[in-house]
Amino acid sequence: MKTAIDLYHDVKFEHEYGDTYIAKGSFGSCRQRTYTKTGRTVVIKKMVGKLDSINRKELEFAAVNPHRNIVPVLGYIILPDDEEIYLFMENGGDALSSFNAQTKQYLAGQFLNIMRCCLEAVGHLHHNGYLYLDAKPANTLINIRADGTCNAKLCDMGSLFEVLPIVLDNPITASDEQQNDNTLVPPPATSGRGTESMMGD
Known about the structure:
The protein has helices spanning 4-12, 57-64, 108-127, 174-178, 193-200; strands at 20-25, 28-34, 41-48, 73-79, 84-90, 94-95, 130-132, 140-144, 150-154, 160-162. By secondary structure, it is α+β, with helices and mostly antiparallel strands. The chain folds into two domains: 4-90, 2-Layer Sandwich (Phosphorylase Kinase, domain 1); 94-200, Transferase(Phosphotransferase), domain 1 (Orthogonal Bundle). A five-stranded antiparallel beta sheet has the order 1-2-3-5-4, sandwiched between helices.
């Protein structure tokens, strides 16, 4: 178990590790690191800016409410004087956005499993009272094993939005559904960052 001093050394002496940068954006940057002593590979997300603007659920949700299809958080360190936060996460695999016909591909059966994993992760978030507003291929990590089996995990919980339980005045029952004429009624149109991001990618 790493202490706060260990984490401080890890982020302030990054040149010692030969990190590979994998993403960069307005939030900061993400880099991949392999510790030579243990062989363990982690992803370190550096977030910069006003600390009160950071959604602390990104730091804590996966640790408090773990799920096999959400990338685990291994630890974090906040440096208030530098206005920096470093989030240490498990290496969940390759981003779905990096898959294409020319390089990395997945099979139809693997795609179904990817979708199942994503839905189970979103269901876990809903069960705990949160909406995930940043669903997109870049935040979906894929790990395809040598035997062809694959697993998917969602990352970046910085967009989690807490919602209150919805109580229906007239809840729908199974008998109500059976009386329906089987006409499909679309749900209300949704808008927001998650929908736009998914379509944009």
